[in-house]
């Protein structure tokens, strides 16, 4: 699962009501704040997505929306409530956690950062946390897959 999403909340995804119920949806539209929405506030993201019919969002770290692990418990609840009120699913959080480094201290730091994102995802109702590989060899892919399985299991247990 290199470059995938680590599950943080096993609750089922419930999309907004289909405006054309006679025509079943074949595709759902979402957005990642990485590019177009990187300079939008949370309220702008919610309003723009609702207006455009976008159903889901991945909040990428370090952007203007400020959905970050540093949020307090009340702020996290506020994000969750605002997204729910707008009918917007929080698909995942886009972290900058990388696990392919050869230096164990770098990997340990990224593990701790990823744990913070997993807890944030749980608190705001996001389904997971995206991690990213920046270089890949078969040895690295195998090592990362093994680490991610272990960390995913631990994170799910930790999140209750």
Our Rg estimate from Cα atoms comes to: 16 Å
Report the β-strand fraction as a percent range: 5-15%
Q: In CATH, what is the homologous superfamily?
A: Divalent-metal-dependent TIM barrel enzymes
- The structural domain count equals 1
Q: Averaging pLDDT over every residue, what do you get?
A: 78
Structural class: alpha/beta
Q: Please identify the top-level CATH class.
A: Alpha Beta
| Strand arrangement across the biggest beta sheet | 1-5-4-3-2
Shape: globular
Helix content: 40-55%
Topology-level CATH name: TIM Barrel
Assign the CATH architecture: Alpha-Beta Barrel
* Major pleated sheet: 5 strands, mixed
User: H/E series, N to C?
Assistant: EEHEHEHEH
Could you tell me how far the N terminus lies from the C terminus, measured between alpha carbons in angstroms?
22 Å
What's the total helix number? 4
């Amino acid at each position: 699962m290199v470059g995938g999403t680590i599950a943080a909340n096993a609750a089922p995804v419930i999309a907004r009501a289909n405006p054309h119920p006679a025509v079943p949806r074949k595709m759902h539209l979402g957005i990642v704040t990485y590019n177009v929405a990187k300079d939008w506030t949370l309220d702008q993201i919610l309003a723009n997505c609702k207006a455009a019919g976008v159903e889901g969002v991945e909040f990428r770290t370090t952007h203007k929306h400020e959905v970050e692990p540093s949020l307090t418990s009340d702020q996290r609840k506020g994000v969750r409530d605002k997204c729910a009120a707008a009918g917007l699913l929080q698909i995942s959080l886009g972290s900058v956690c990388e696990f392919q480094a050869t230096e164990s201290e770098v990997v340990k730091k990224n593990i701790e950062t990823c744990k913070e994102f997993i807890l944030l995802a749980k608190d705001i109702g996001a389904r997971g946390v995206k991690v990213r590989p920046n270089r890949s060899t078969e040895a690295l892919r195998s090592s990362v897959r093994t680490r991610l399985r272990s960390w995913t299991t631990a994170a799910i247990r930790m999140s209750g």
